[in-house]
Amino acid sequence: MGAPSFETDQLTESQVQSFGFVDYVLCRMKQDGLQYRDLALKIGLSKTRTHNVFHPEPSKRRPLYVHEFRAVAAALDLSPLEAALVSDLYSGAGDANEGVESQIKLYSGVLNRLHGHMKEVVERLGGLDWDDIRPSHGEWIIDLIISEIESAYADFAVRKEVRLRDRETF
């Protein structure tokens, strides 16, 4: 993770739009029906500053300062982890889509719970120490999680399809 990156917030000559925190905020503004004035009131910035930071055209954006980043995250009800996930995971990914908010909440929840459970697992297993845990084990853990997710969501998709089909027949 690390500190949020703001490469999309810098003035650029490039016409390539990359998706990061600012684009996420613009997407949320559109979803929530917020105007620049509304967001400015929520975060405590002037309307002009808010528009300059969150300009729809990336080449015209001004940098977002850390205290502004935190204020925006708090105003949009984003935890620091969720705000960092938006910046880190979606930087350079293209335009925002409607599923990003759900994805961020999902990833944040998984990371928070995994963090707590891993502590418990290491404490429960007598011969295991944190020095025994290697970053390469993350790939193995991800493979396990993905296989479980696929089977669980496959069942969910079948049930949803049946429910929609039954709804159409009535």
Write the layout of secondary structure elements.
Layout (H helix, E strand, L loop, with lengths): L20 H12 L3 H8 L3 H7 L12 H10 L4 H10 L10 H25 L12 H33 L1
How would you explain this protein's 3D organization?
The structure is a single chain. With 170 residues, the chain is mostly helical. The protein folds into 2 domains: 7-100, 434 Repressor (Amino-terminal Domain) (Orthogonal Bundle), CATH 1.10.260; 134-170. Helices cover 62% and strands 0% of the residues. The chain is built from 7 helices and no strands. Helix 2 packs across helix 3 and helix 5 packs across helix 6. The longest helix is centred in the C-terminal third of the chain and has 33 residues, at 137-169. The termini are far apart. The relative contact order is 0.12.
Name some characteristics of this structure.
plasmid, 434 Repressor (Amino-terminal Domain), disordered N terminus, 62% helix, mainly alpha
Strand content: under 5%
List SSEs in N-to-C order. Answer: HHHHHHH
> What is the makeup of the main sheet?
none
CATH architecture of the largest domain: Orthogonal Bundle
The low-confidence runs, each spanning 5 or more residues with pLDDT under 50, are 1-18
Within the CATH hierarchy, at the fold level, what is the topology of the largest domain? 434 Repressor (Amino-terminal Domain)
> Distance between the terminal alpha carbons, to the nearest Å?
49 Å
CATH top level label of the largest domain? Mainly Alpha
Give the domain tally: 2
Mean pLDDT: 80
Please estimate the helix content.
Answer: 55-70%
Q: What sort of overall outline do the alpha carbons produce when their principal axes are compared?
A: flat
The CATH homology group name of the largest domain: lambda repressor-like DNA-binding domains
Calculate Rg over CA atoms. Answer: 20 Å
Structural class: mainly alpha
Number of strands: 0
User: How many helix segments?
Assistant: 7
Keywords: Plasmid
